[in-house]
């Protein structure tokens, strides 16, 4: 039933034409279209470093570090993006709005992560990024391999025992995976701040995710036999569905041609439309097909659990016919969650279910603006006022 309600909701997308929205970028921002994250950060006179982390299974990840812009220097913080995204999320809106800059201005040592497979982490010690084997991962492997390697690398560099962690969407799911399967990492995190957290997705509203969930097995088999290992920005299944479901000749069609906006939804009132052409040059940054398949499985199962390979392979890998749930009781890090009623991906009902299972939950916060969407955690014009300032205040407790 929910899939039909969510599909019908697309009929009410605000009918704004492209000519009303797509304005030329200001000359001062035009160079950022083809710039990397470190180049953009340096442009605004912040001290930036690029680091490379090799995971246990051979993926080479890029870390972008923004050094504190004032003293006294506070703790270090790892900020982790969601699906289809990259470290660009936290700086693309500029020094007055980007979370990376805001944290640096408050004296934090900021590390912006990049998960395997995105624009900045498409290398491996032995696998070719064009191979099927390279893309055989979901948020599970990001939690089991990427985050532990990244955290250990940071702690080794700063010679400290703990850091803060801020995650958005998939960046929270991977964190829960890590702390449940590798509970020793709980001791390495001072506190975790979950923006639009993802674990249980029974009430996820995204029309495209429900469509993929309804035909999950078909999509998985087609992707396997057609070698669709990566959800490409322009010719992937998600983008085709976005174009068809959102309609033509409107800003809805334009944004739904983008995988992230197609899945997560958007609210034009919260987007800085001047920056929109710039944002869309950095998003999507790359994702495996298996990442989306894993989330669609969670919609169908109602569980937060490992990847479902089918009865026989499950039994071979897990010793049981169905995949095991992630044991959230093993998470002991102080966790603060942030949700919004207009989020197509992370619903308040699912966040409440998650919080009940997190013994170390310290607070569940609703974003003051009820129309705040999944995208607005990164690009919303009011994000500093309604969200980032609260996180900064909570960080001072530690």
From TrEMBL:
Q: Which residues form the signal peptide?
A: 1-19
List GO molecular-function terms, semicolon-separated: hydrolase activity, acting on ester bonds
Q: Which domain of life, per UniProt?
A: Eukaryota
Is Chloroplast set as a keyword in this record?
no
Query: Which biological process terms from the Gene Ontology are attached to this UniProt entry?
Result: lipid catabolic process
InterPro entries, per the entry: AB_hydrolase_fold, AB_hydrolase_lipase, Lipase_euk
Which residue ranges run through the membrane? none
Lipid metabolism in keyword set: yes
Q: Which residues carry out catalysis?
A: 169 (nucleophile), 343 (charge relay system), 374 (charge relay system)
Record key words, sorted: Glycoprotein, Hydrolase, Lipid degradation, Lipid metabolism, Signal
Q: Which residues form the Partial AB-hydrolase lipase domain?
A: 37-93
Family from the record: Belongs to the AB hydrolase superfamily. Lipase family.
Protein name from the UniProt record: Lipase
Source species of the chain: Zophobas morio
């Amino acid at each position: 039933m929910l899939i039909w309600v969510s599909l019908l909701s697309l009929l009410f997308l605000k009918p704004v034409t492209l000519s009303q929205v797509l304005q030329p970028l200001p000359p001062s921002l035009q160079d950022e279209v083809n710039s990397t994250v470190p180049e953009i950060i340096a442009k605004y006179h912040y001290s930036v470093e690029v680091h490379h982390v090799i995971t246990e299974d051979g993926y080479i990840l890029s870390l972008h570090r923004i050094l504190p812009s004032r003293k006294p220097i506070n703790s270090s913080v790892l900020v982790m993006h969601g699906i289809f995204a990259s470290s660009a999320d936290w700086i693309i809106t500029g020094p007055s709005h980007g979370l990376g800059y805001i944290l640096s201005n408050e004296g934090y040592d900021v590390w912006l992560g990049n998960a395997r497979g995105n624009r900045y982490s498409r290398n491996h010690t032995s696998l070719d990024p064009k191979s099927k084997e390279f893309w055989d991962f979901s948020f599970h492997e990001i939690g089991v391999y990427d985050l532990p390697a990244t955290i250990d690398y940071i702690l080794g560099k700063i010679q400290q025992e703990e850091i803060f962690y801020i995650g958005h969407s998939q960046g929270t799911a991977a964190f829960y995976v890590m702390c449940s399967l590798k509970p020793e990492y709980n001791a390495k995190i001072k506190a975790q701040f979950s923006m639009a957290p993802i674990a249980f997705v029974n009430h996820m509203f995204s029309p495209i995710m429900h469509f993929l969930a309804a035909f999950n097995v078909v999509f998985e088999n087609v992707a396997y036999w057609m070698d669709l290992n990566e959800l490409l920005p322009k010719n992937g299944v998600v983008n085709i569905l976005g174009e068809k479901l959102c309609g033509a000749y409107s800003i809805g069609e334009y944004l739904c041609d983008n995988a992230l906006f197609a899945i997560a939804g958007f609210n034009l009132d919260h987007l800085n439309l001047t920056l929109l052409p710039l944002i869309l040059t950095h998003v999507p940054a790359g994702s495996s097909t298996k990442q989306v398949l894993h989330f669609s499985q969670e919609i169908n199962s109602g569980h937060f659990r490992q990847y479902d390979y089918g009865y026989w392979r499950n039994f071979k890998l897990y010793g049981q016919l169905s995949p095991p749930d992630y044991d959230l009781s093993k998470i002991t890090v102080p966790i603060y969650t942030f949700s919004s009623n207009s989020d197509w991906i992370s619903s308040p009902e699912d966040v409440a279910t998650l919080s009940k299972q997190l013994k170390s939950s310290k607070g569940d916060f609703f974003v003051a603006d009820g129309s705040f969407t999944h995208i607005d955690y990164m690009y919303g014009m009011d994000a500093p006022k309604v969200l980032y300032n609260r996180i900064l205040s909570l960080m001072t407790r530690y």
